[in-house]
């Protein structure tokens, strides 16, 4: 990911307490060349409380992924397309014979 300029206009794409989902979204954005920044991901490593957050509100521990406003619609579409076809590669397995 390129360096993000602090004066650029960013918007929240997603908030999550799921570390795996955070990694997947970051990978998708990287592969699409969409610049992003993550706020709050360091809390996942500091507090070994699991996704429920213990006594804390899970929204208080959520990481927020920010993208440039100009890229927000494209980033949302990318996530929607991937969510709509989660196992597309496995359906096209050349070793799988339907007969």
Describe the structure concisely for a colleague:
The chain has one domain: UreE, C-terminal domain (Alpha-Beta Plaits, 2-Layer Sandwich).
Known CATH architecture: 2-Layer Sandwich
CATH class: Alpha Beta
What's the gyration radius in Å? 17 Å
Arrangement of strands in the largest sheet: 1-3-2
Helix run count? 4
* Overall number of strands: 3
Judging from the principal axes of the Cα atoms, what is the shape? Answer: globular
The main β sheet shows up as: 3 strands, antiparallel
As a percent range, the share of helical residues equals 25-40%
Helix-strand pattern, N to C?
EHEHEHH
Broad structural category: alpha+beta
Low confidence ranges: none
- For this structure, the CATH topology is Alpha-Beta Plaits
Could you tell me the mean pLDDT?
77
Q: Could you state the oligomeric state of the chains shown?
A: single chain
- Cα distance, first to last residue? 45 Å
Describe the overall structure:
The protein has four helices and three strands. The protein has a three-stranded antiparallel β-sheet with strand order 1-3-2. It is globular, with a radius of gyration of 17 Å. The protein has a single domain, classed as 2-Layer Sandwich (Alpha-Beta Plaits), CATH 3.30.70. It is α+β, with helices and mostly antiparallel strands and 99 residues long.
